[in-house]
Amino acid sequence: MGKLFYIMGKSASGKDSIYQKLLENKEFHFKRLVIYTTRPVREGERDGQEYYFVTEEIFQELKRAGKIIEDRGYGTVCGLWRYFTADNMELDKHHYLGIGTLESYEQLKTYYGAEKLCPLYIEVEDGERLKRAIAREELQEKPQYEEMCRRFLSDAADFSEEHIQRAGIERRFQNTDLNSCLRNIETYLKSMI
User: Fold this and answer.
1) Per-residue tens of pLDDT for the chain, all 193 residues
2) DSSP of 122-144, one letter per residue?
3) CATH homologous superfamily for the domain 1-33+94-193
4) Which residues contact 107 (CB under 8 A, 6 or more apart)?
5) Element (H, E) at 29
6) Number of H helices, E strands in the chain
7) What homologous superfamily does CATH list for 34-88?
């Protein structure tokens, strides 16, 4: 029986880097949980890798067809951006690796059962996160600093200590150094698989 190992953390905490490194580690044989989004593609992202990039119309079609497990909408400075998960995993055959929010984790846990999900919560000190977020935004062809700031502030509420506890997150991984953080996560994963 497989599990869904679900990476969570505030923006610019290193989730995408950790996700990529864990997928590259052939010891775990993870399949990707690729979620959907209606937001624009960022520099370097590819459809079907980080996300499936779809229109609002496709989201509505999938919703009408009853294929959506969980969805979140964010009123951004660029309009409504949706992120959602459709039921397309074979947990009876494979281990999966995904990235999301506390809210999506709780909804997936309700849908699949707590025994099928394993949270990987990534933490980084806020000042360091802000530096990373600015550096990442500077690399974009059209930097969206206003949206970056909105996301940063929104994370304080979305990932409050109360919400972390409510989601049942017991283990946290400090990402002050990517390689050290990865070693800690890999050791933990070996104990869970």
Assistant:
1) 899 999 999 999 999 999 999 999 999 999 999 989 999 998 889 999 888 999 999 999 999 998 899 998 988 888 999 999 988 889 999 999 999 889 999 999 999 999 999 999 999 999 999 999 999 999 998 999 998 999 999 999 999 999 999 999 999 999 999 999 999 999 999 999 9
2) EE--HHHHHHHHHHHHHTSSS--
3) P-loop containing nucleotide triphosphate hydrolases (3.40.50.300)
4) 69, 70, 85
5) none
6) 7, 9
7) Guanylate Kinase phosphate binding domain (3.30.63.10)
